[in-house]
Design brief:
This protein is mainly α and 257 residues long. 86% of the residues lie in helices and 0% in strands. It is built from ten helices and no strands. The protein has helices at residues 2-30, 42-51, 53-87, 89-104, 107-118, 122-146, 150-158, 163-200, 206-215, 219-256. Residues 60-241 form the ABC transmembrane type-1 domain. Keywords: Cell membrane, Membrane, Transmembrane, Transmembrane helix, Transport. It comes from Globicatella sulfidifaciens.
Length: 257
C-alpha cells in the first residue's frame, strides 16, 4: 500500500491529465463528434480487452517469447562485443563502424531480407528485435567502461591488481549505471521490433492481432492491442529498473564499507 501511495503521489499529474483526456474522448465519441473508426471510446477498448482476453493472452505470449529470445541474444552478444571494443583498439577500429552502420539502415528495409532468410518463423522477429536492441547494449557497455575513473585505475595498478580484478571489482561496477540505461532502452525497443516482424507476416503476436483488427476496421481492437503493448513495455522497463536499483543498492553498500 505504501508503494502504491508513493506511485500515486509521484505520478498524480500524469494520472490527472490522462483521466481528463479519457473523459473528453469518451464524451466526444459518444456525441459522435469523432467517428468511432478513428478513435474508439475508451470504455469500448477496455471492454474489448476483457471480451477478447483469451486471444490477447495467446498473442501476448507469442510476442513475449520473441522479445525474450531477441533481447537475450542482444544482451549476450552486446556485452561481449562492448567489452572487446573497450579492450582492443584494433577491434574498435575494425568493428565499431559496422555497429554504427547497422543503425543507419531503416529496419523496415531489412525486414524483407530477414523474411527471405528465415521465412515467417520466430527467427525473423528475433532478427529484427536483435537489430534494434543490439546497438544500445553495445554502446552502453563500451561507454560505461570508458567512464571508469583514471585515479581508481591507477590505484588498482599500484596495488598490483590483475586485469580481471580491475574489470570485475572496478570497471564493471562503474559501467553498471550506463549498462542498465542501455537495457531499459533495449527492452522498450524490442516491442517495436516484434510488432514490425509480426506486421510483415505471421499468424500470431500482438502485431498480427493489431493488423487483423485494422483490416477489419475495428479500432477498439487496434487500441486494445496497443494498450497491451504499452503495458508490457512499462512492465519490462520497470523490471530492468528494479534490477538496476538492487545492483546500485549493492554498490552503495560496498561504497559505505
Amino acid at each position: 500500500m505504501n508503494k502504491l501511495r508513493q506511485l500515486i503521489q509521484r505520478y498524480w499529474p500524469f494520472l490527472s491529465v490522462l483521466a481528463v483526456l479519457l473523459v473528453i474522448i469518451e464524451w466526444a465519441v459518444a456525441r459522435e463528434w469523432v467517428p468511432k473508426f478513428i478513435i474508439p471510446r475508451p470504455s469500448d477498448v477496455i471492454k474489448t480487452i476483457f471480451t477478447q482476453a483469451p486471444q490477447l493472452w495467446t498473442h501476448t505470449q507469442a510476442t513475449l517469447l520473441e522479445v525474450i529470445v531477441g533481447v537475450a541474444i542482444s544482451i549476450g552478444l552486446g556485452l561481449l562485443i562492448g567489452i572487446l571494443l573497450y579492450y582492443s583498439d584494433f577491434i574498435e577500429r575494425a568493428f565499431y563502424p559496422f555497429v554504427l552502420i547497422s543503425q543507419t539502415i531503416p529496419t523496415i528495409a531489412l525486414s524483407p531480407i530477414f523474411v527471405l532468410w528465415f521465412g515467417y518463423s520466430l527467427w525473423t522477429k528475433v532478427a529484427i528485435i536483435f537489430l534494434i536492441t543490439f546497438f544500445p547494449v553495445v554502446v552502453s557497455v563500451f561507454d560505461g567502461l570508458k567512464r571508469t575513473d583514471e585515479e581508481y585505475l591507477e590505484l588498482f595498478r599500484v596495488m598490483g591488481a590483475s586485469k580481471w580484478q580491475m574489470f570485475s571489482q572496478l570497471q564493471w561496477k562503474f559501467a553498471l549505471p550506463s549498462i542498465y540505461s542501455g537495457l531499459k532502452m533495449s527492452v522498450v525497443y524490442s516491442l517495436i521490433g516484434a510488432v514490425i516482424g509480426e506486421w510483415l507476416g505471421g499468424s500470431e503476436g500482438l502485431g498480427y492481432y493489431i493488423r487483423r483488427m485494422s483490416s477489419s476496421i475495428k479500432s477498439e481492437g487496434v487500441f486494445a492491442g496497443i494498450l497491451v503493448l504499452s503495458l508490457i513495455g512499462i512492465l519490462l522497463f520497470n523490471l530492468v529498473g528494479l534490477l538496476e536499483n538492487r545492483a546500485l543498492k549493492y554498490l552503495n553498500t560496498e561504497k559505505r564499507k
